[in-house]
UniProtKB/TrEMBL annotation:
SMART domains: IG (SM00409), IGc2 (SM00408). Residues 8-67, 106-198 form the Ig-like domain. The lineage of its organism: Eukaryota, Metazoa, Spiralia, Gnathifera, Rotifera. This is Ig-like domain-containing protein. Residues 242-264 are annotated as: Disordered. It holds the Pfam family I-set. Keywords: Disulfide bond, Immunoglobulin domain. The keyword Disulfide bond applies.
Length: 300
């Protein structure tokens, strides 16, 4: 049996961050990168976020502030502005003199991934793209420009170099092939993925069970029956992971207890790159990123 010796826990304003379908967290072991994604950020997501990592040898933590700028509801205007129906694109900021002296063509480092999502769930398409100056991004769907919509949000996260497309309330008409094209004065690159939306069944009587995740709703009025978000490697939103995932990582014979591990093999966790403050517009996806060495031992 594999036993994990470290744990990550997220806090908001000093209280454990509760599970919700807008939150996704993941720890990538080899780059030691921990991320928290918040879909369709809202003013009540505004606050101070802390992640704490612990193992038998100690603990460490890092903190940042997330600020959400409210936007006026479209209902307050007498008409829909024509530019809302333009193609969905992300214009590049004005290049700096340094960018112009050391220009590099856009390059996709991590491509878009195929996604299958349940109807009415939020979805986030993301790719890692570098380039100098910062690229200009255009989104296509099934070979045609993707029209702007109140359900769609796109942005480029400078810190992680990720271009993001958030689709709220996924529908069957969202099914298709999505392409993001990155361009700057010295070149272009692109990435493609497919999105499949699974329609909801007409009822639940024919189901063998109702998944527990259906009841983990961040918007529960009294905050009951919701558990704090805790993270273990390789997991997005699930609170546990298959032990087989870690059999080759810092393996200690099962006959050895944690306290039997040689002293020189033990190391407390350490924050290598702290969280950075983030400010963005309401309804945009937020990404909080930190680099953390989880310490030794990791697991038996």
């Amino acid at each position: 049996m594999t036993i994990l010796f470290f744990k990550f826990t997220w806090y908001k304003n000093g209280e454990p961050l509760l599970e919700g379908n807008r939150f996704t967290t993941k720890y990538d072991i080899y780059p030691k990168t921990l991320t928290l994604q918040v879909l369709a950020a809202r003013p009540d997501d505004d606050g101070t976020y802390t992640v704490r990592v612990t193992n038998p040898s100690g603990s460490d933590e890092t903190t940042c502030k997330l600020a959400i700028r409210p936007v006026a509801s479209i209902d307050t205007t007498p008409f829909v502005k024509p530019e809302r129906f333009a193609q969905l694109e992300l214009k590049a900021p004005l290049p700096t003199s340094e960018d112009l002296q050391q220009m590099e063509p856009p390059k996709v480092i991590v491509p878009l991934q195929d996604v299958q999502i349940n109807e009415e769930s939020p979805v986030l398409l993301q790719a890692t793209v570098i380039g100098k100056p910062t690229p200009h991004f255009i989104w296509l769907k099934d070979g045609a420009p993707l029209p702007a919509s109140n359900r769609l949000r796109t942005r480029y996260d400078i810190g992680t170099k990720q271009v993001l497309l958030q689709i709220n309330d996924a529908r069957p008409q969202d099914i298709g092939e999505y392409v993001v094209i990155a361009t700057n004065p010295v070149g272009e690159d692109s990435s493609v993925c497919s999105l499949n939306v699974v329609p909801d069944k007409p009822g639940v009587d024919d189901r063998a069970f109702v998944p527990q995740d259906k009841f983990r709703d961040l918007e529960h009025p009294e905050g009951k029956d919701r558990r704090p978000i805790t993270i273990v490697p390789g997991v997005d939103t699930q609170p546990f992971v298959s032990p087989d995932k870690f059999r080759s990582l810092d393996h200690v014979p099962t006959s050895m207890k944690p306290e039997d591990t040689p002293l020189e093999a033990k190391r407390p966790p350490r924050v290598l790159v702290p969280l950075s403050n983030c400010e963005l517009e309401e309804l945009m996806p937020a990404i909080l990123t930190t680099t953390i060495d989880a310490g030794v031992p990791m697991a038996t």
